[in-house]
Write a structure and sequence with these properties.
Blueprint (H helix, E strand, L loop, with lengths): L5 E7 L4 H11 L5 E8 L5 H8 L4 E3 L8 E2 L1 H13 L4 E4 L5 E2 L1 H6 L4 E5 L11 H8 L3 E8 L9 E8 L6 H24 L3 E4 L2 E4 L10
Parallel strand pairs: 1-2, 1-5, 2-3, 4-6, 5-7
Antiparallel strand pairs: 7-8, 8-9, 10-11
Bound molecules: 5-O-phosphono-beta-D-ribofuranosylamine.
Length: 215
């Protein structure tokens, strides 16, 4: 299976374990990609430290003009940084702000997000806790293209986990995160293999799916 190398820009606010899963997949040649830049709205975020450990350019972006979104000057600066670093695919990995149209238009159908629930159930914050409080028996994660809404874009793939008796928000989140770390590289592999096309809300997978070991 022929794949096209992805040039990834990551946006994150926290620990960066999902970014790490992408770095690891690239290192073991399960994903034909390079992470060209990591940008965070949180100056001391671990995701920036992780990036520096791997010699990936790491930038803090002052987004303080807004509390919950990436907009205005910061949005423009973010797009500029991504372009300057040759990014063609934007990966939101625990980025705690809503991204707006200007960024989406700069990377059409190339902004991805991972959400710790089986969308459309439990969008928004602390999705694993929402799922636990609701009493579902199956939880999971979703990788999707980003659109104008919050956690509403076309779904690329989902992975499930059981909710166990005695689960706490923390134990359930940890189980979901194990699946996230498989799901994000897998979704990116599908994009690099040119396997996906978006038709309305649906993400259609071509007949041929990539061999996980192929580059
Ligand atoms: C993940 O649970 C992801 O689904 C959510 O934010 C969390 C980020 O974790 N969007 P990390 O920073 O990748 O470790």
């Amino acid at each position: 299976m022929r794949t096209k190398k992805l040039h990834i820009g990551v946006l994150g606010s926290g620990a960066g374990s999902n970014m790490q899963s992408v770095v690891d997949a690239v290192q073991v040649k399960k994903l034909n990609a390079e992470i060209n830049i990591v940008i965070s709205d949180v100056a001391g975020a671990t995701i920036l430290d992780r990036a520096r450990t791997h010699n990936i350019p790491a930038h803090w972006l002052d987004c303080s003009a807004y509390r919950t979104k990436l907009d205005g000057e910061a949005e423009r600066a973010c797009i500029q940084l991504m372009n300057d670093h040759g990014v063609d695919t934007v990966v939101l990995a625990g980025f705690m702000r809503i991204v707006k149209r200007r960024l989406l238009d700069a990377f059409p159908n190339r902004v991805l997000n991972i959400h710790p629930a089986l969308l459309p159930a439990f969008p928004g914050l602390y999705a694993w806790k929402q799922a636990l409080d609701y009493g579902v028996k199956v939880a999971g994660c979703t990788v999707h293209f980003v659109d104008d809404g919050t956690d509403t874009g076309p779904i690329i793939l989902q992975k499930t986990v059981p909710v166990l008796e005695g689960d706490t928000p923390e134990t359930l989140h940890a189980r979901i995160q194990e699946q996230e770390h498989l799901a994000y590289p897998e979704a990116l592999r599908l994009i690099s293999a040119g396997c996906l096309r978006v038709e309305g809300r649906r993400v259609i997978m071509n007949d041929s799916t990539p061999d996980a070991s192929a580059r």
